[in-house]
Amino acid sequence: MSSFKDMRIVDNFYQTSSFFPMPTVLISTLAEDGSTSIGSYSLCFPYYIAGKGYYAMLLECRNSSNTAQNILRTGKCALNFLEDDRADFKETVRLGFPGETSAEKMKNCKFQLEDGLACADGTARPKVISKAFQVFECTWDDSLENGYEDKARIGQLEGVEPPYKDFNGITSKFGCHFILKVEKILMKEKYWNTIINGVKAKGFPKVPVDYGYRDSTNFWYTKFTKPIAEKIPAGKEADLGSVMYAANRVDDVVKFSEDACETLVKVPRVFLKLVLQGCVDWAKENNCTLITAKEMQIINDKRKAEKGKK
Ligand SMILES: Cc1cc2nc3c(=O)[nH]c(=O)nc-3n(C[C@H](O)[C@H](O)[C@H](O)COP(=O)(O)O)c2cc1C
Question: 228 CA distance to ligand 1 centroid (A)?
Fold first, then answer.
C-alpha cells in the first residue's frame, strides 16, 4: 500500500493542491501616463539560464492585470526582490489585490522609487524600488512565438477569446506568459560582495518564501532563516590521476602540472572537459605551455574579476 494519498489536481494546483515554495517579486512597469505601476507576483522563475545567447525569466500572470497590459504595450519591466519584513509583505499583499487602477494603488504606495541602471541608454523604463536587495531589469522577448501579435489585444479586460499562444503572450482566456530578457541585475553592495568575494551565511539577503493564496483568505509565507551549507558528497571528488589523464589529453602543446590538477579534483566530472578547455584557451592566448597552480590562480582571479564586471 502507498504511503501517499492521491490529491485532486485543480486550477492553481501550486497553491490549491500542493505546497510550492515561491519567491515574492514586486514587478514595476510603465503605466500609460509614463508613471511606474507595481504588482505582486510569485510565479516568476528563471527560464533561459545558459547556452541561449541571453538570459531570461518567465512570468505567469492574469492577462487583464495592469502588469500584463503594461508589458504587452511597452515590453519593459523590473523585477524587484525585497527582504523579509512583515510591514513590507503587508504592502505587497495590498499591491497584489486585483481591481485597482495603477493610479489608485500607487497613490498610497509606501515604497520609495528610483531610476534603475538600464535607463542610462535613454530608454523609457519603470523605476525600481529603492529598498529592494536586487532588481532584474527586463524586456519582453516578443519575437518568441510571435508574441508581439498580442499587442493587438491590449484592452480586452473581460477575457480574451482564442486563438492562444502556447508560452509567450496571451495563453488562455485570462492568462498570460511572458519570457523576459534579463538586461541588468542590480544588487545592493553587501550582497554584491557576497557573490563576488565569497559566500558566507551572514552575507545572504533575508529572502522570504511564499506559499501563495490559501483558504480564500490569506497569503502564507515563511520568514527567512539563516542558510546552511551542505558539502558535496564525500567520495565524489575525482582522483588526481584521472584529472591529470584528462587534462593532458585536451591539447597537444599545453600541459597541466600535478599541482594545477589538484585544484580541479572538486570539479564535477561532467564539467571537467569544459573547465580544462577554458584553461587551455587562456594558455594559448598567453603563450603558456605549462599550466601550474600559479596559472590556475591567475585564471581564477580573471574569472572572478569578469564576474565582478558583469
Ligand atoms: C504575494 C503575491 C503573489 C502573487 N503572485 C501572482 C502571480 O504569480 N501571478 C498572478 O497572476 N497574480 C499574482 N498575484 C495577484 C496579483 O498581484 C494581482 O492580480 C494584482 O492585481 C496584480 O497587480 P497589477 O494589476 O497592478 O499587475 C499575487 C499576489 C500576491 C500578494
Answer: 31
For the chain, state the CA radius of gyration.
24
- CA dist 180 → 82, 112, 169, 177, 211 (Å): 19, 24, 11, 9, 23
CATH number of 240-309: 1.10.8
* Residue 62 neighbours by CB distance under 10 Å: 16
Atom 15 (ligand 1) nearest CA: 96
Where in the chain do CATH 1.10.8 domains reside?
Answer: 240-309
Measured between alpha carbons, how far is 274 from 118 in angstroms, rounded to an integer?
32
CATH superfamily of 13-222: Electron Transport, Fmn-binding Protein; Chain A (2.30.110.10)
pLDDT digits (tens, 9 = 90+) for 223-276: 999 999 988 777 677 788 889 989 989 999 999 999 999 999 888 888 899 999
C-alpha cell read off for 86: 512583515
Supply the pTM of this predicted model.
0.85
C-alpha cell read off for 140: 519582453
Whether the CB of 65 sits within 6 Å of ligand 1: yes
Task: Retrieve residue 60's grid coordinates.
Answer: 505567469
Closest CA to 278 of 237, 252, 247: 247
What's the CA gap between 273 and 111, in Å, rounded? Answer: 48
- Residue ID of nearest Cα to ligand 1 atom 29: 96
